[in-house]
Amino acid sequence: MASETVVKITREEVRYVADLAHLKLTEEELERFARELNAVLVYMDKLNELDTSDVEPMAQVLYDADPTATLAEDEPEPPIGAELALANAPLAGAGFFKVPKVVER
Amino acid sequence: MDLRKLTAEQIRADLLQRRYSAVELAQAALEFAERENPKTNAYLHFCPERALEAARRVDEKIARGEDPGLLAGVPTAVKDVILTKGVRTTCASRLLQDFIPPYDATAVARLEAAGAVIIGKTNCDEFAMGSSNENSAFGPVRNPLDPERVPGGSSGGSAAAVAQGTAVVALGSDTGGSIRQPAAFCGVVGVTPTYGRVSRYGLTAFASSLDHIGPLSRTVRDSARVLQVIAGRDPRDSTSAFAPVPDYLAALNGNVRGLKIGLPKEYFEGLSDEVGRPLQEGVRLLESLGCTVHEISLPTTPYAIPCYYIICTAEASSNLARYDGVRYTIRSQQATDIIEMYAATRGEGFGAECKRRIMLGTYVLSAGYYDAYYLKAQKVRTLIARDFAQAFQQVDLIVTPVSPFPAFKLGEKIDDPLQMYLSDIYTITGDLAGIPCMSVPCGRTRDGLPVGMQILANHFQEALMLRLADAFERAGGFQL
């Protein structure tokens, strides 16, 4: 299989992408994803068979109204409130989401 | 009452004639669903209090002589990626295993306003990513027609619930085939409306330029009824369409004589006999109903899979960034600083397929690769939409297979992600073009497994699509 000979993505690049995605992977996962992503990326090269130099990218799927039609009047609605918004937080207090300390004193 | 045979229309008539009450029906449905569930794992959890409250409202309306709604008393299942206020919504992910939404999805609110009785939340692939329902953090769903086989995915629980008769109708979501393919695998009807036809407010975002909510049911009429209720502009979803909602039920008049049906050659080349034979018989049935059949070409079809898996993973990597241990229930206990907390929470919480798609999506959007992958895919998406636009100048509707094969065995394909992706070939094109499409049962394979026929229509032509499906269903007698 071509996917095993062409290297589109190395294990180090997989590690770099995982860092970008804030995704902690085990060594075993890094190994596995390097192999699997490589096969998928090789397959994706198929798109290069198509000449798209004169084609606009599809930025909008479907829009059948005036450009301003979805602009809402600026009328404030009551928000759901801090209590409800925080109800699913793993750690909350004093009306805020709590996270590990970000700034050193 | 036999829950497995009931339709929404029958239930409404029965309630109005006081054959049983909505509360009695809800109790029977809950009892039946809870008893059946160990066979399929179709439901992740039930919501009896909410169901009985909805049923009581229907009974009260009937007692007062008010119209109880198009879906009065209908036992309904909702895929667990669609938010239900106060009722746990997990997206079949460990990351959201205790998440209680603070609001209802618009589709859910509209269903209940029309009298529907939501009995429970259905299993699916984690964050709707998968084609077999094997990616659920809470165990796979088994196909009610053959427990050794998958129900399809990602709306596998919704399809299984409808097929086993524990729900009369269900909501699913479809990004690349997640309503139609499980509908085909379980022998039921599944409809993916035009992009923007149904509000996605309260649908957990996977790939926002491709995500849809749509109905599953045992008859075309029931799907039309659900679509009637959930379709239409919603100010809370800026992508929802302003186009007026036609009367879908009135459109089911059996008048299909003279409709021009396109068969795209790219969808039939190399199709296995197993799926091809029932489909050929289905096409002959369409001809016997007076439709004319025309070979057409959608030349960009072979490029749809790479196009789809670039766009959907790119959007998924960005949509799933919010699950970081700050707002949603689960946080890793392994970390002391905030970056480590994000990464460890996500590493522990996401299943393999979500991680794979986050990785792929992050890669195709990353510096140096954006033009080669994401921008290229967006251009190819234009070509795919153009193929359909040209085809609909020649024909009224397009008919294709739903899946290259019928329901496969659990474990058969899960170890090869690329092969699993390739199985979505016939369903992803409709999502990429934003057109309405559906699966309607079309007979069985020699082994007795259901085969679906896909019907695709031009934008906002759901009424015509449903009319053909309804005529086909009644002529073929394919319902479970």
Describe the structure.
The complex is a heterodimer of chains A (105) and B (480). Chain A has helices at 2-5, 11-20, 27-44, 82-86, and strands at residues 92-93, 96-97. Chain A is mainly α and 105 residues long. Chain A has a domain at 1-49: Glu-tRNAGln amidotransferase C subunit, N-terminal domain (Histone, subunit A), CATH 1.10.20.60. A two-stranded antiparallel ribbon of chain A has the order 1-2. The radius of gyration of chain A is 23 Å and the shape is flat. The N and C termini of chain A lie far apart (56 Å). Chain B is α/β, with parallel strands linked by helices and 480 residues long. Chain B has a domain at 8-251: Amidase signature (AS) domain (Amidase signature (AS) enzymes), CATH 3.90.1300. In chain B, 41% of the residues lie in helices and 13% in strands. Chain B has helices spanning 8-16, 22-40, 48-63, 106-113, 156-164, 180-186, 220-230, 248-251, 265-268, 273-288, 304-319, 338-349, 352-365, 371-394, 417-422, 428-433, 462-476; strands spanning 43-46, 75-79, 117-122, 169-174, 189-192, 212-217, 260-264, 292-296, 397-401, 437-444, 450-457. In chain B, strand 2, helix 4 (106-113) and strand 3 (117-122) form a beta-alpha-beta unit. In chain B, helix 5 packs parallel to helix 6 (180-186), helix 11 crosses helix 13 (352-365) and helix 11 (304-319) packs across helix 14 (371-394). Chain B is globular and about 65 Å long. Chains A and B meet through helix 2 and helix 3 of A and helix 11, helix 12, helix 13, helix 14 and helix 15 of B.
- Oligomeric state as shown: heterodimer
Under CATH, the homologous superfamily of the domain at 8-251 in chain B reads: Amidase signature (AS) domain
Proportion of residues in helical segments of chain A: 25-40%
Give the C-alpha Rg of chain B: 21 Å
Q: Shape of chain A, please?
A: flat
Strand arrangement, major sheet of chain A: 1-2
Query: Segments of chain A where pLDDT lies below 50 for 5+ residues?
Result: none
CATH hierarchy class name of the domain at 1-49 in chain A: Mainly Alpha
Under the CATH scheme, the architecture of the domain at 1-49 in chain A is Orthogonal Bundle
Structural class from helices and strands of chain B?
A: alpha/beta
Distance between the termini of chain B: 17 Å
- Alpha carbon gap, first and last residue of chain A: 56 Å
Major sheet description of chain B? 11 strands, mixed
Overall pLDDT score of chain B: 96
What is the SS-derived class of chain A?
mainly alpha
CATH fold annotation of the domain at 8-251 in chain B: Amidase signature (AS) enzymes
Q: Strand order within the widest sheet of chain B? A: 1-3-2-4-6-5-10-11-9-7-8
The ordered string of helix (H) and strand (E) elements of chain B is HHEHEHEHEHEEHHEHHEHHHHEHHEEH
Bin the strand percentage of chain B. Answer: 5-15%
Total helical elements of chain B: 17
